[in-house]
Write a structure and sequence with these properties.
The chain is α/β, with parallel strands linked by helices. It has one domain: 2-Layer Sandwich (Transcription Regulator spoIIAA), CATH 3.30.750.24. Helix content is about 35%, strand content about 35%. It contains 4 helices and 8 strands, in the order βββββαβαβαβα. This is SpoIIAA-like protein.
Length: about 150
Amino acid sequence: MGAHRGKAESIGDGFMKLVRNEILHRQSNILVEFNHVEGWLYVNWRGYQNYDTVVAGCEKILELLLETNCTKVLNDNTNVEGIWSGASKWVGQDWLPRMQAAGLECFAWVYSRSAFSRLSADKTLNCTGDLSFIKTFDDMEAASDWLRAC
């Protein structure tokens, strides 16, 4: 991976800067960026989630995966609070298979520090048929290393 890869963005007077992360979608509970250096979508879920916020966020991620022709996702749940298991079955049986069908090859899932959120993530994985493209992690560094090698 070259350290100088990125998206060029004009900053005026004919000068350009390289953008590492391009924000594609931002709401109070989710941030989705395209990492131009690594070539993956970075998804930062934040705060309390429920069925509606999970479904809306996941549908946006699928849309952006298709728009960017991306095959890798770094799904960061570090800042998720509480339980969101009401959406687990939908994520595991509906959304993740559609993500894979759309070209997703590697999905690194960083667990939340919240035990309830972690249980929700595990429930999702238990509802998912094909886990071959998903790996869970306790920290961003290990998840990023795995995605780079994927």
